[in-house]
Design goal:
171 residues, alpha/beta, Rossmann fold, 7-stranded mixed beta sheet, 4 helices, globular, binds adenosine-5'-triphosphate, binds magnesium ion
């Protein structure tokens, strides 16, 4: 049996990855941090589109290109506002860059959640707790999506439990 703090799923196509993300959208809370690991084209942005859908974001979600962060207005299931901070650190020149754009203010936003693609680029300044989503190709169009609460106790384990419940209900 897989441990309680890890959830492993297989997504058969991009829309399924969005659906899984959409189940996470209503579960996240202000101040949450979600890190997305995976190679180019693994499906990080696709998964983020799902999170956005689950947060009621109406904008089209794409990776930020000229900036490192895009902001989208979403809502919590109770109707209160919740912003999605979508960061993509791929183009980060070096860790010195992180300071100039105020990276740390996005790590635990009071009014929203942060979703970070290529968080490896900021390894030295990441906090100790986050939800880690790993995406890896399985054959042509499937992806293994592994979602892990780091550390294996506390709020992110609660988020993972809530996500499991939603995915079960969906079936
Ligand atoms: N099961 C799947 N889940 C997600 N994406 C899939 C899946 N199968 C195929 N794809 C395709 O893989 C690509 C994923 O692209 P996406 O932009 O989400 O990747 P990314 O990890 O954000 O890449 P980058 O590092 O360049 O930002 C899309 O073209 C998508 O249609
Ligand atoms: Mg991307």
């Amino acid at each position: 049996m897989e441990p309680q703090h890890v959830l492993e799923l297989v997504s058969e196509n991009p829309e399924r990855s969005r659906e899984i993300g959409a189940c996470l959208g209503p579960v996240v809370r202000p101040g949450d941090l979600i890190l997305l690991h995976g190679d180019l084209g693994a499906g990080k942005t696709t998964f983020t589109q799902g999170i956005a859908r689950g947060m009621g974001v109406e904008d089209y979600v794409q990776s930020p290109t000229f900036t490192l962060v895009n902001e989208h207005d979403g809502t919590r299931p109770d109707g209160t506002p919740l912003r999605l901070y979508h960061l993509d650190l791929y183009r980060l020149a070096g860790e010195a860059d992180l300071e100039s754009f105020g990276f740390e203010q996005y790590l635990a936003p009071a009014d929203g959640v942060a979703v970070v693609e290529w968080p490896e680029r900021a390894a030295t300044v990441l906090p100790e707790a986050y939800l880690l989503v790993r995406l890896a190709p399985v054959g042509a169009d499937a992806r293994r999506i592994t979602i892990e609460a780091v550390p294996p106790e506390g709020v992110y384990v609660e988020r993972l439990d809530a996500l499991r419940e939603r995915l079960d209900r969906e079936e």
